[in-house]
Amino acid sequence: MVTRLVTASLVFAIAIADAAPVIEVRATCAAELASEPAHLRTLRGELAQALARTTATASYTLDVSLVRLGVATVGRELEVRAEVRAMLSDAHGKIRWSSTSRSAARGPAADRIRLQRDAVSAAARDLARSVRAHCCTR
Fold first, then answer.
1. How does strand 60-74 pair with strand 23-29?
2. Which of 65, 66, 97, 110 is deepest in the core (most CB within 10 A)?
3. DSSP letter at 22?
4. CA–CA distance, 37 with 11 (Å, rounded to integer)
């Protein structure tokens, strides 16, 4: 009897969780950045992690694009700047919100890959904060 009750409770909880509104993330990169898939994985992963424990008020699609990843030498260091643009649309395809997030990371030239990852991650986290503020319950 107890086993049936626990099983029924789990099935009910899973059904409620599956029915909850979600934010589907679709990530892309600008053409000149598409040759490096690690940036896209970083962007998608950071957004998924940042939005994982949020509950949306409705079902949304978040279209995100890494549009710029620039590297400049500043003295003996590298400065990496990332720019991410996003549009949030509802289940009917109507755009509800759009934004651009920028970030920068600076460090030794030998850490170029880490700096790029850090800049993309910071832009994604900043964007996730804005998404949560616009479409999610707390």
1. parallel
2. 66
3. -
4. 38
d(CA 68, CA 85): 9
Q: What is the pLDDT of residues 93-108, one digit of tens each?
A: 999 999 999 999 999 9
Query: What gap in Å lies between CA 43 and CA 33, rounded to an integer?
Result: 12
Residues 115 and 126: their CA atoms lie apart, in Å, by 16
Q: What percent of the chain has pLDDT over 70?
A: 83
The three-point CA angle 37-30-130 to 5° equals 90
The residue with tokens 């008020």 is 57
User: Does residue 76 or residue 4 have the better pLDDT?
Assistant: 76
Neighbours of 29 (CB within 10 A): 20
